[in-house]
Amino acid sequence: QVQLVESGGDWVQPGGSLTLSCVASGFTFSNYAARWYRQAPGKERELVAHISTNGAVMHRDSVRDRFFISRDNAKNTVYLQMHNLKPEDTAVYYCNNGADIWGRGTQVTVSS
C-alpha cells in the first residue's frame, strides 16, 4: 500500500522543540523529493520545507534557522526538526512526496 504516515505532533510551550517523522511505504522513497506542509485553522495549506533526492533543502522564510528538514533513505523516513516554536507554528503538519502522495497529518499545538 502506497502511503505516508506522520508522527511526532504534540502540544508544546513557546520556545520548545519537536521532531516530526514521516515514514513512506509502497513506493521507492529515495526516487522522490520530500516535503512538509502545514495548515492552520482557517488558512490555506503552505509549504514549510523541501528536500530533494540529492539532499538539497529549502525552508520557508518564517521557519528558517528554526526548522530543519532531513531524510534517511535507508529508513524511508523524512524528518522535520522544529526549535524555538511559536504559537503561529500551530497547525496540522502534512508529509508529501513532492507529487501526489500525502499523509494524513499530525497536529502541532504551541501555546502556554
What does this structure look like?
This protein is mainly beta. Helices cover 0% and strands 47% of the residues. The strands form two sheets. A six-stranded mixed β-sheet has the order 2-10-9-4-5-6, with no helix packed on it. Strand 5 and strand 6 form a beta hairpin.
Estimated helix fraction? under 10%
What is the count of β-strands? 10
The low-pLDDT segments are none
Number of helices: 0
- Separation, N- and C-terminal Cα atoms: 39 Å
The largest sheet has its strands arranged as: 2-10-9-4-5-6
SSE class: mainly beta
**Could you tell me the radius of gyration in angstroms?**
13 Å
Strand-and-helix sequence, N→C?
A: EEEEEEEEEE
Shape descriptor reads globular
In terms of DSSP E residues, the strand content is: over 45%
**Average pLDDT over all residues:** 97
The main β sheet shows up as: 6 strands, mixed
